[in-house]
Amino acid sequence: MRSFFNLLLVSLFFFGCSEAKREKPKPIADLLMPQNALEYLPSTKVAPFSKHKLLELKENYLKKFFSPFLNLAPNPNISEVFWIKSSLEKNIGYGENLKPIDPKMTQKILQDMQLPLYPSVAQMAIVVKDSDVRAVPSVHPRFSKSSGFPFDRWQNSMIFYGTPVLITHFDKSKRFAHIQTEFVYGWVDVRHLAFVSPKQAKNLAAMKDFVVPKSDELIITDWRGDYLTQARIGKIFPLAQKNKIWVFKRQSDGKLRIEQTQIDPQAFDAFPLNFSQKKVAEYINELVGRQYGWGGMYEERDCSAFIRDIFTNFGLYLPRNSYAQGHYGTRQIDLSLLASNQKEQILFSNATPFGSVLYLKGHIMLYLGKDQKGRAVAAHSAWSVNAGDIWGKEEYRLGGVVITTLEPANEYNGSWGRSKTLRDRILLVNDLYSLMEDIGEGR
């Protein structure tokens, strides 16, 4: 009998120490929907823009794109530029080991920012490597909670190769430069920037012909065949000749070198394209299945980067975050006081399929119209949604660019204590197609 109990105790010990079986992630019904955006194209197409409107859109975009080379001055509002300062002093957060960050580390970061000296320079530069724009001069992450991955609160955005910037400051080590554009502030590795002379800036800002890639996977090399960058959707490239573009390199002295390199003209479109729902659908299809990248981390896209990169091709220069995109322009309809099902009816009557965005706190989606069941459908880059009941809530992973209804994972909601769906949380719809019309007409 004693040997039996000993065997039982040993078995229980090993059972208790063994790794628990992980439950299979529950499938989300919406992810079984067609992920081909062309299947949701409306029967009625929007009118194309006139040549005059296209030219207005192009000039408006390029004026903002090249503003660091034209009239952009360092923002003197330190609390706006360095909004992260208060969290460095109070809300420390968690690091890459998912343990609380040492306050000494955040104090050192704050000291290294040398805020009393800001702005210390006004140097024009251009990005020569797709780069993270950080809220602090550090590559280390900061999560709000120990389970906060992938939401690194020190990550602002990714900035594309070829983007003009204004350097306004350096950290103590001079490893990081603080840059400013029309869409983002933050710290970038100095090695990813090339200093631009006034003459170079004038010549670049005067360029009129640009192209945009049709694919997210095109590789750009220099004339020697050495890798330069990946031509991603949302990037624009200055055209030198029919089959050549201007490319940018950082020399050993940090200054900009401009060269030409050959491209396949069939892989690019002239910038800007005339807006069409079919072309938007083709861009969505190019991006569906891409992984989620908070703030552009891992060279992927979050919700607002997905929207921004698509509309760049049509000459619309959008802000970087979801709130600013939702409130950009004057073409919003407030849905915040409506019942959930009423929101869909407003969308069906007023929103432009493939041309309107749906904003809710912390997220933004591209409205596509109806599916065959008459449900509103959207394309978006999302990490997860919650669903549950009075017994508890669960997180259901979307994990990237997907096409869903406005209620993904709603099948896991109970009757009591249910989680709010995306549709429940929508606050407004913003018609970006109509906004482009306004810009094209000079309004």
Short précis:
InterPro entries: NLP_P60_dom, NLPC/P60_N_dom, P60_peptidase_YkfC, Papain-like_cys_pep_sf, SH3b1_dom, SH3b2-type_SH3. With 443 residues, this protein is α+β, with helices and mostly antiparallel strands.
Characterization of this structure:
This protein is of the alpha+beta class and 443 residues long. The protein has 3 domains: 29-49 and 274-440, Alpha-Beta Complex (endopeptidase fold (from Nostoc punctiforme)), CATH 3.90.1720; 53-188, no CATH class; 207-270. It contains 13 helices and 20 strands. The chain has a 6-stranded antiparallel beta sheet with strand order 15-20-16-17-18-19. A 5-stranded antiparallel beta sheet has the order 6-5-4-1-7. A 5-stranded antiparallel beta sheet has the order 13-12-11-8-14, with no helix packed on it. The protein starts with a helix and ends with a helix.
What are the defining features of this structure?
single chain, 443 residues, alpha+beta, endopeptidase fold (from Nostoc punctiforme), 3 domains, five-stranded antiparallel sheet, 13 helices, globular, disordered N terminus
Number of strands: 20
- Main sheet attributes: strand count, strand direction, barrel closure: 6 strands, antiparallel
Average pLDDT works out at 93
At CATH level 2, the architecture of the largest domain is: Alpha-Beta Complex
Structural class: alpha+beta
Instruction: State the domain count.
Output: 3
Overall geometry: globular
Q: Summarize the amount of helix as a percent range.
A: 25-40%
How much of the sequence lies in strands comes to 25-35%
Rg (C-alpha, Å)? 24 Å
User: How would you describe the oligomerization state of the chains in this entry?
Assistant: single chain
Poorly predicted runs = 1-24
Strand order of the largest sheet: 15-20-16-17-18-19
Distance between the termini: 91 Å
Tally of DSSP helical segments: 13
| CATH-level-4 superfamily name of the largest domain | endopeptidase domain like (from Nostoc punctiforme)
- CATH topology type of the largest domain: endopeptidase fold (from Nostoc punctiforme)
